Amino acid sequence: MAIKTAIPYLNANGKADEAIPFYEKALGAKVTTLMRFGDAMPDCPAALKNQVMHAALQVGDATIFLSDGAPDGAKAQPGGTVDVALDFDDAAQARGSFDGLSKGGTIVQPLGDAPWGGLFGALQDRFGIDWMFTSRS
What we know:
Blueprint: E1 9-11, H1 16-27, E2 30-36, H2 37-40, E3 52-59, E4 62-67, E5 84-88, H3 91-102, E6 106-113, E7 119-124, E8 130-135
Parallel strand pairs: 1-4, 5-8
Antiparallel strand pairs: 2-3, 3-4, 6-7, 7-8
Helix pairs in contact: 1-3
Organism: Vulgatibacter incomptus
Domain Glyoxalase/fosfomycin resistance/dioxygenase: 14-133
Protein name: PhnB protein
């Protein structure tokens, strides 16, 4: 058995309805799936009914999954052990997406020339998601 693909699954900690349009604008993401807890679990608590249980975003040739988090309301701690790495064909697109995602976030390493060639940069967005950017052009 072989792994078909690996898809990052972002926990928006109850802010998915804010995060989705942010990623649409910053990354050009397109929503391909959006399911709310109330759609899948009609008897869930009223506070959960409109929370995003699962969303799929198409970002170029890649897919990113996103959710408001666990139905028990447990919050994920931002940052720390995983970064979503984005590899761009075009340096201008990398710069635009980096600038878009950095709004309200923290730039860890400015996007600039990498010693191995191309561009590299890192940031944590305003939702606590860590991102790395590369472009070979």
